[in-house]
């Protein structure tokens, strides 16, 4: 019943959107505004709006996604990994030569663990690179795949977590793996959905079904995303 309600809400959302003819008759909104204004949807509506597609891993290589690059601020001498660690630090670390991080404290929400060594953390791609490839990234340019792999334009895209939890997850989608902490499920489902919506990635049937199950138990949770440029 809850899934039916989500589907109905998503259908109503679709009906509220202008037709192609109506859109053509209206002045185009500035691209810059569209790129920076977040969209917020109830989690059930957001999941229901994800397109379905059969996954295809043909030709996948991790090297197809260049990372970690010079980061969002190339002049700071820190790569994407280090910039994410700095952004997510609960207690800010000291930055040494070569952007070496010492001290500091982080919170790994997947398994609810406090971490005090930067080297004990992995930067997890919320939607793993292989899963992104399966879901549409195989048709992207190399430049767009690099942008995806280093995406700091939306906090949910990259997350600092314990190496153990990240490696347990590997390249699995929510139908195959979920964070061990029950308290993490609503956030995780929302952030996974937000990342797929941001990058226009599809879901398969099992994945969408599990996300709808999560949404059914996460009333009041919103999905906030900004379409990638």
Q: What proportion strand?
A: 5-15%
Count every helix, treating DSSP H or I runs of 4 or more residues as helices.
10
How far apart are the first and last residues' alpha carbons, in Å? 36 Å
Largest sheet descriptor: 2 strands, antiparallel
Order of helices and strands: HHHEHHEEEEEHHEHHHE
Number of strands: 8
Radius of gyration: 18 Å
Q: Strand order, biggest sheet?
A: 1-8
| Uncertain ranges | 1-35
Give the overall form: globular
The overall pLDDT, averaged over residues, is: 88
Give structural notes.
- This protein has 229 residues and is of the alpha+beta class.
- Helix content is 39%, strand content 12%.
- The protein is built from 10 helices and 8 strands.
- It has helices at residues 2-16, 20-25, 31-36, 43-48, 80-88, 129-134, 142-149, 163-169, 185-199, 205-216; strands at 39-42, 94-95, 101-102, 106-108, 113-115, 121-125, 158-162, 222-225.
- It has a two-stranded antiparallel ribbon. It has a two-stranded antiparallel sheet with strand order 2-3.
- The longest helix is centred in the first third of the chain and has 15 residues, at 2-16.
- The radius of gyration is 18 Å and the shape is globular.
- The model is unreliable at 1-35 (pLDDT under 50).
């Amino acid at each position: 019943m809850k899934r039916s309600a989500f589907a109905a809400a998503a259908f109503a959302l679709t009906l509220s959107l202008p037709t192609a003819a109506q859109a053509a008759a209206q002045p185009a909104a500035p691209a810059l505004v569209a790129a920076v204004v977040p969209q917020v949807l109830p989690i059930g509506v957001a999941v229901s709006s994800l397109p379905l597609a059969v996954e295809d891993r043909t030709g996948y290589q991790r090297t197809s996604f260049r990372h970690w690059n010079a980061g969002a601020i190339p002049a700071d001498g820190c790569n994407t990994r280090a910039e994410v660690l700095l952004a997510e630090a609960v207690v800010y670390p000291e930055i040494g030569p070569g952007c070496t991080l010492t001290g500091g404290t982080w919170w790994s929400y997947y398994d609810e663990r406090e971490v005090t060594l930067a080297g004990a953390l992995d930067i997890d791609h919320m939607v793993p690179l292989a899963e992104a490839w399966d879901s549409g990234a195989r048709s992207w340019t190399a430049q767009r795949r690099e942008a995806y792999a280093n995406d700091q334009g939306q906090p949910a895209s990259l997350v600092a977590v314990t190496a153990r939890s990240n490696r347990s997850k590997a390249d699995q989608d929510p139908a195959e793996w979920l964070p061990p902490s029950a308290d993490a499920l609503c956030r995780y489902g929302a952030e996974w959905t937000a990342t797929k919506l941001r990058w226009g990635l599809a879901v398969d049937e099992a994945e969408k079904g599990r996300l709808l199950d999560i949404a059914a138990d996460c009333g009041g949770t919103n999905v906030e995303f900004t379409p990638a440029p």
